[in-house]
Design brief:
about 180 residues, mainly alpha, Four Helix Bundle (Hemerythrin (Met), subunit A), 6 helices
């Protein structure tokens, strides 16, 4: 990655009108990829957690037990990764809007966007899987909600780290000389 950033520093000096459109498109694709790929993981994770919550509520109704509303927290937990991807997209847009010569560093923005999107999407997927288990456990026992929520928070932390490190990395892309 260091070599890529160093190459980008040289490329920043050589942006021409002929390749500006392509460079801008690829840079913005990297920003969008962070959000879109994270959204795929979030959709899968939320779908998995929601399916488990619906099954848990069905068991509660079948046993004439109250259906715990708290299961919706487990359902929604994977959705935050979309927000983290959106933040990376906005960072990409604002970085390059303030210095259009950064479009020459499009490979960095593209690679960071795709890699961060995949990492955040996997975090959301596993958070949904853990949310599914938490839904089952809480609906059966009515206990442990705080512990289960903390476990989901640990998985969430991975996505927060990825977003923060990606922002730092994108901030290190050299400006035009």
């Amino acid at each position: 990655m260091i070599e890529l950033i160093t190459s980008a520093a040289e490329a920043v000096k050589t942006v021409t009108p002929a390749n500006l459109y392509f460079a801008k498109a690829m840079t913005l694709t990297g920003g969008f990829a962070a959000m879109a790929i994270a959204a795929i993981g979030s959709a899968y994770g939320a779908g998995r957690a929601c399916s488990a919550a619906i099954g848990a509520w069905k068991k509660c109704y079948a046993q004439n037990k109250p259906a715990p509303f708290q299961l919706l927290v487990f359902c929604g937990a994977p959705l935050s990764q979309v927000i983290y991807g959106m933040i990376l997209m906005f960072v990409t847009i604002s970085n390059t809007a303030s210095d259009p010569s950064l479009y020459a560093a499009w490979p960095v923005y593209l690679i960071v966007g795709i890699a961060a999107g995949i990492a955040m999407g996997i975090s959301a997927l596993w958070q949904g899987t853990a949310g599914a288990a938490a839904s089952d456990a809480f609906s059966e026992s009515g206990k442990g909600f705080t512990n289960q929520l903390m476990a989901l928070g640990i998985i969430e932390t991975v996505a927060i780290f990825i977003m923060a490190f990606a922002i730092v990395l994108l901030g290190s892309v050299p400006m035009a000389a």
